[in-house]
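tool=predict chain=A
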Amino acid sequence: MKLTVIGPWGGYPKKNEASSGYLLEHKDFRLLIDCGSGVLSKLQNLIQPEQLDAVLISHYHPDHIADIGVLQHARLIQGFLGAEMSSLPVYGHKLDKPEFEKLTYKNITLGTPYDPDSKIKIGPFEVSFLRTVHPVPCFAMRIEAEGKVMVYTADTSFKEEFIPFSQDADLLVCECNFYANQNGSGAGHMTSTQAGNLAESAGVKQLILTHLPHYGRLSDLILEAGEEYEGDIHLAEQFLTVEI
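tool=predict ok
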């Protein structure tokens, strides 16, 4: 598996960058995980919109879905220009029916529901879910392919169930919207030390901190998480690529 960060920002994209979006590739299958503001623009540095095979959405906050409509129109226009493509499956939960229905557009994209209590197959990937602690229904993902495991927490404050869910993952992509001296629980987000503690408790091999805050010294997040976790820690940044 190869993961490329398209956008690492929480809430809104930093200048010339993007909010939440991650491209996961394996055996020529291209899965976009979340599709926030600016993601489509930045994605085109790597692949074209018509080259995606599937999209997987954690929840329906704008910083995770703002570019779904843009993606739909990009594929529509490319179809007018002669590109041949099938309807793109966009996987999302149905706990917010009006938002889920927006995932379907003509014959361009097809909203495809996932059952959070069941494991699903998307191309070469097996995906299981864990409901997070967030103001709206949101689901973390454990994605497996050929014995390799990536866990993406999506947006959440800490809960103990994340430890077995993330156990022995090769890569943990963990949200980190708050610094160690803050309390993110009311907003449904984690601190740097909580991310580090989760990584250490679950025995993951590598930690990427993402959904980053727009203030403070971001390098402090690595130092703070490192007080809890002894493994490799990286800040998510545009086009950071990790082979898993």
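The domain at 2-243 is CATH 3.60.15.10 (Metallo-beta-lactamase; Chain A). The mean pLDDT is 97.
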